[in-house]
Amino acid sequence: MSNSVKKFRQKFWNLEHWVIIAIALGIYDVIAVNASYALALWVRFDCKISMIPVEYMKAFLMFAPFYTVACIAIFYFCRLYKSIWRFASYNELIYTVAATCFTFIVQLVGTIVFVKRMPISYYLFGIIIQFILVLGIRFSYRFILLIRSRNKKLSTSTRVMLIGAGNAGQMLLRDSLRQDEHGGVICCIIDDNPNKWGRYVDGVLVVGGRDSILDNVKKYDINKIYLAIPSASMSDKKEILDICQESGCEVKTLGNLYEVANRVVTVSELKNISVNDLLGREPIRTDLDEVFQFIRDKVILVTGGGGSIGSELCRQIAAHRPKQLIILDIYENNAYDIEHELLDNFPGLNLKVLIGSVRDSRLVNEVFKTYRPQIVYHAAAHKHVPLMETSPNEAIKNNTIGTYKCAFAAMVYGCERFVLISTDKAVNPTNIMGASKRLCEMVIQCFDSKIKQNKAHEIPNIYTHDGEFEVDVDYSNVKTEYVAVRFGNVLGSNGSVIPLFKKQIEKGGPVTVTHPDIIRYFMTIPEAVSLVLLAGTYANGGEIFVLDMGSPMKIDTLARNLIRLSGLQPDVDIKIQYVGLRPGEKLFEEKLMAEEGLRKTDNDLIHIGSTIPFDEDEFISNLQELVDKAYNNDDNIREFVAKMVNTYHPNSKGNKQVYEELLKESSECNEH
């Protein structure tokens, strides 16, 4: 082999890959454009070469070289040699159509003017065949890649069942077809409408209704389920989820109808099943017209406004056009987040965000003196039960004494209504956090009772440090009303068990449950807050409002459901580890003490607990001593709290009969 040939081959193989592809396409096009019109001539004369007149054959052969050069030039200027054909789309199709039109004009004009007019069918068949051959070779590459990709996805990717053949389901299906091999392949569709069974949506078969989910999971070897029925009721959704749990597949779902209405939804918007879905009840929707009238054009203070409950209070209050909203929180990051969220969503809101502690008498008094809030929602508190057990004095300082200082400032500076956010852990408390919140309720009841008896002057301004200033109080004009709102566990709140379970599942377990029989009441943050706002409008002073949170639920059942809906098996893929009750923790929470009864309000979900009488003067006297003990970090603070709260029984397991009744109620709820 000569050196010149070797150099040529070496130079050729060193060319860019796309250049080699372009040269190959050029060679193909030379053959294709000539073959197109040769075939057209052959078809025109009954597919017999012998029947083609000599003058037509000569004309074709004479014009072919000129036409070939013209086609290659036109194709080059129409970018048919520079496109990346694996990504060929609408633009490449337009360029191919344009090139075909230009070459058709060259063929038509060139033959008629310079050679010989050919039969009309020759021109028509020729350009059609040329278009098919030129376009086909280019787009066939992409089609082959798509087929190979789909086959690869079917063999190696997650196999998905789609539940819901409505608009949301169709959008998810089409979006999934655009995903890479890691996005999963939708193999079948479930829909309860029999009219859709046996029919196809974008090539995917609708195999049946919800009763056939388990059968088709096995038939199609499904390992993930997309639930795309945003309009489904909570009861229907829970029924479908209960079936999906038995499949062992990971389940993801879209938001509700309001979240996905009037827009395109994508696979990326699918989210893991939330505990809200597992509760199986419709969200509590309250008519907040009364709240709107109550808080509109008023100055409102939310303490602990950066926390889970406090921030949601701020969101709902901001939506009802207050005159001014003041947020007081000790944690600047949370305060910063809610400040910017509110300013983004409510540009006209008169908002003031302050950093400080409710334990600081000077700060609290300065806030009330400067802004003169008319309504206070007191959400600032330490709420973590085990942590407070190790720091009992801090629970008293922040919860009880902080509440007292805010309540006193509210009285001094003419606040109309003071709403305490309490907890069901204040009922027969077995932990210092619950006991501290019960003391908060007693503070509220004491303030309200003294004011109603015109004895507001008997309420002392309790100092926690020497040298704190006295305040001038016009006791003859005190009209502040004090109420408490009590509810149980809030889904998704800071420190709640659900985020912990999800993190543990993501890490591969184990999921830690304190006790197999522990049960809790649950409510979502927006539900709880809307009822708090509504309860605040019903207040006449001194009440403890109790929110109806439905039936309790076993934490163990909750954990197992979350594991199953993550596509895993409890005690197989993810171990459940029982770690024992934590210090101060009860197997169950009560909403009312045995001595209390319930009175109805205009809202079936809000009740009023009858107050338990106590010696208010003795309570105030003991409270001053409690302050001294807490700030001296007394090791025996629990014993003194038990003296003030006679229902506080440290390390008590609670009332066995009440527990058995709650456990039975929970079991019946879980069965249904």
What CATH architecture of the largest domain would you give? 3-Layer(aba) Sandwich
Structural class: alpha/beta
N-to-C span: 86 Å
Q: What is the count of structural domains?
A: 3
- The name of the CATH superfamily of the largest domain reads NAD(P)-binding Rossmann-like Domain
- Oligomerization state: single chain
Percent helix, as a range, is 40-55%
Rg (CA only)? 38 Å
Q: How much strand? A: 5-15%
SS field, number of helical segments? 23
- CATH class division of the largest domain: Alpha Beta
What do the pLDDT scores average to? Answer: 81
Low-confidence stretches: 257-262, 652-659
CATH topology of the largest domain: Rossmann fold
Largest beta sheet: strand ordering: 10-9-8-11-12-13-18-22-21
Shape: elongated
Q: How is the main sheet built?
A: 9 strands, mixed
Overall number of strands: 22
In short:
This protein is of the alpha/beta class and 672 residues long.
Detailed description of the structure:
Helix 17 (432-452) packs across helix 22. The protein is an alpha/beta fold and 672 residues long. Helix 12 (308-318) links the parallel strand 8 and strand 9. It has three domains: 11-151, no CATH class; 157-273, NAD(P)-binding Rossmann-like Domain (Rossmann fold, 3-Layer(aba) Sandwich); 289-491 and 522-549 and 590-652, Rossmann fold, CATH 3.40.50. It is built from 23 helices and 22 strands. The strands form five sheets. The chain has a nine-stranded mixed sheet, with helices on both faces. Mean pLDDT is 81; it is low at 257-262 and 652-659. The relative contact order is 0.07. The chain is elongated and about 125 Å long. The chain starts with a helix and ends with a helix. The longest helix is centred in the N-terminal third of the chain and has 37 residues, at 120-156. The chain is 49% helix and 13% strand.
